[in-house]
């Protein structure tokens, strides 16, 4: 697994994911499924590392464990950083909250927590189909925004 995770550089067109899960059992369930879905995976091991990676790379998927490094939803530094990003930059990432509290695909709670999707830890074995559906819906919803942003940047 470490050889797939050690790729620090991405090529244009790569599917990329940042996994901010410090719970090893959850990490062992998530990472192989992402790799199986052809994502190149970076692990966020501590707050400063994650924030630097988010500034450096535009990840397709960012998965954040609600209790990352002992935080709560209210004190989670990664979620706080994502909320304070500019809208267009924030929408480049598909943010998944890995939760013990909320049900998988709870849209209202996802809205309240400013994430795109929620996956309950009890459903980690089914992450692939849940994530595929969520990412597809996200792409469909934000495709016009991303196309317009590209056009405006070319002017």
Would you kindly provide a written description of the structure presented here, covering whatever features stand out?
The protein has 7 helices and 5 strands. The protein is 46% helix and 17% strand. It starts with a helix and ends with a helix. A 5-stranded parallel sheet has the order 2-1-3-4-5, sandwiched between helices. The N terminus is likely disordered. The protein has one domain: Rossmann fold (3-Layer(aba) Sandwich). Helix 6 links the parallel strand 4 and strand 5.
Unreliable residue stretches? 1-7
Percent of residues in beta strands: 15-25%
CATH class: Alpha Beta
What is Rg?
Answer: 15 Å
- For the record, the CATH architecture stands as 3-Layer(aba) Sandwich
- SS summary, helix count: 7
> H/E element string?
HEHEHEHHEHEH
How helix-rich are the residues, as a percent range?
40-55%
Largest sheet: 5 strands, parallel
Compute the average pLDDT: 86
Q: Trace the largest sheet across and list its strands.
A: 2-1-3-4-5
Overall 3D form:
globular
Salient structural properties:
single chain; 155 residues; alpha/beta; Rossmann fold; five-stranded parallel β-sheet; 7 helices; 5 strands; 46% helix; disordered N terminus
Write the layout of secondary structure elements.
Blueprint: H1 2-5, E1 15-20, H2 24-36, E2 39-43, H3 47-56, E3 61-65, H4 77-83, H5 87-90, E4 94-99, H6 107-112, E5 117-120, H7 127-154
């Amino acid at each position: 697994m470490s050889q797939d995770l050690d790729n620090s550089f991405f090529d244009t067109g790569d599917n990329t994911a940042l996994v901010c899960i410090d719970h090893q059992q959850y990490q062992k369930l998530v990472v192989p499924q992402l790799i199986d879905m052809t994502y190149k995976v970076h692990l966020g091991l501590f707050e400063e590392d994650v924030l630097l990676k988010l500034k450096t790379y535009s990840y397709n998927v960012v998965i954040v464990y609600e209790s990352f490094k002992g935080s709560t939803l209210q004190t989670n530094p990664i979620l706080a950083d994502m909320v304070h990003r500019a809208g267009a930059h924030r929408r480049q990432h598909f943010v998944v909250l890995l939760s013990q509290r909320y049900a998988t695909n709870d849209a209202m709670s996802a809205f309240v927590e400013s994430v795109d999707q929620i996956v309950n830890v009890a459903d980690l074995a089914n992450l692939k189909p849940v994530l595929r559906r969520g990412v597809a819906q996200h792409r469909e919803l934000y495709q016009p925004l991303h196309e317009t942003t590209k056009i405006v940047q070319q002017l």
